[in-house]
Amino acid sequence: MKEDLLHFIWRCDKLQGRPLTTTTSQNIVIKRPGTLNQGSGPDFFNALIEVGGQLWAGNIEMHLKSSDWYAHHHESDDNYDNVVLHVVWEDDITIFRKDGSQIETLELKNHVDPALLTKYQELFNHFNPSFINCERDFPQFDSLRVHSFLDRLYLERLEQKSKLIFSLLKASNNDWEGTLFVLLAKSFGTKVNGDFFFYRAKSLSFSIIRKECHDLLTLESLFFGHFGLLVEKDCTDGYFLKLKKEYQYLTRKYELPSNYDRPEFFGLRPSNFPTLRLSQLAQLFYQQKHLFSLLMEQKQLKNIYELFNVGASDYWDDHFTFGKLSRKSKKRLTKKFIDLLVINAVIPLKFCYSQYIGQDWSNHLISMVSEVKSESNSIIANFEALGSGTANALESQAKIQLYTQYCSKNKCLNCALGMHLLNRNT
Fold it and tell me: Beta partners for 32?
């Protein structure tokens, strides 16, 4: 058993109609259960309860055992001074506030419907799921209920991504164009080099890109050098040497460090080699001088695709790495890759910018992401194996959020679908 079961019992009125008393035999009437706290501090804020005929307004704290109050050092924490009721599964010790006053305790183990406990045990303990706890029940969920929850999950995922974006903005003094560059760099790095590209992009002042974006060779040399691809000493390729010479000039001009780790090539398809992705990224910022403003103005997805209609420079038509010829082909951004840029960079940044200017673009963003094709990964494949089709990127992003933030962490009682299962006939 976990504390989230106690939260579920409390906030879903599973105690209504039952005579409740504290461990000191004081009658309890729950007037208002309060609001679940997702952060630090007591579990429920602003509750209203009647204890022994006295009305109390304050906070509720919950534990499996009363002694957890001391195990968590709440007796010395000012945040818990306004706790008016301690709700526990088992009362094993009397607890006191910092000022020495006793806190009334409600012990739940004799007040909960056995049918609810059976359902809870079935959800977590009755078999070994191959994917998620409710996989046997998932195909039977009402489609309207599922889709309504997916919309909420997608907005929750945007909120989660916005924390990173606002931290980048704070670090860059609200440079939205620079923040866009960092987000795009992470996506251009793909799964293998995403974190490396993100780190390197953060360490490059976007003011330099603004100054140098009018010359493609200079911009490419800046990107290739800063991201660690111009460190080979034995390469005699003419284009490589030209870029290296230009980057040496840039390092003196802007006092840039010159020693970097290299991005990974191993395990990547040639189309995702960092050489090609950095050339494409350079082309993007060379062709679109005010990319952030242009993206924020676009209401139609097709216009965003047009902005990202770029390819690597001509040298890469017959190369994947420096000095090694390959079969000639244009290395342009594919629609599938642009979809990932829209999902992971453009729409999250639009979401944050709308909050910044005090507008609600939620419906517009939901409409836009609903036009984007679903991602393909193991999480989506597993949901589809349960009979849950994924129509678009909104649903794939929402299912990733559902799995990573709820299913994989066994937070079924914080999930609308898990709560529905426990609410049935209890």
Answer: 48
